[in-house]
């Protein structure tokens, strides 16, 4: 599923999905969505949506603890998420 950038309800749904059980992930994923989602390629947008379907411990291990996903597309996305500036 690709979220259409022009549909605010879809972006709002993604924003809601960025709210996780860990504050650290909430802040990081919401910042990434706000700063970078619109500019992602359709392929990376799909991977972001898929990422949000994963359990928190996996997302945390990849985004915060520095573990590397085996899938190259996820690895590219995770690198972008890690580089996100959180204000």
What does this 3D model show about the protein?
The N and C termini lie far apart (29 Å). It is globular, with a radius of gyration of 12 Å. The mean pLDDT is 89. It has five helices and no strands. It has helices spanning 8-18, 23-36, 42-52, 56-63, 72-82. The chain is mainly α. The protein has a single domain, classed as DNA polymerase, domain 1 (Orthogonal Bundle).
Category from helices, strands and their pairing: mainly alpha
- Broad shape: globular
Q: Provide the succession of SSEs.
A: HHHHH
Query: Count the strands?
Result: 0
Helix count equals 5
What descriptive keywords fit this protein?
DNA polymerase, domain 1; about 90 residues; mainly alpha
Give a short overview.
This protein has 87 residues and is mainly alpha-helical. It has five helices and no strands.
How do the strands and helices of this protein lay out in sequence?
Blueprint: H1 8-18, H2 23-36, H3 42-52, H4 56-63, H5 72-82
């Amino acid at each position: 599923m690709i979220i259409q950038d022009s549909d605010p309800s879809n972006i709002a749904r993604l924003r809601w999905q960025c709210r996780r059980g860990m504050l650290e992930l909430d802040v990081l994923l919401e910042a990434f969505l706000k700063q970078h989602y619109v500019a992602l390629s359709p392929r990376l947008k799909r991977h972001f949506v898929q990422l949000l379907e994963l359990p928190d411990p996996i997302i945390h291990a990849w985004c915060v603890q520095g573990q590397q996903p085996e899938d190259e597309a996820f690895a590219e996305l995770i690198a972008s998420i890690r580089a996100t500036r959180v204000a």
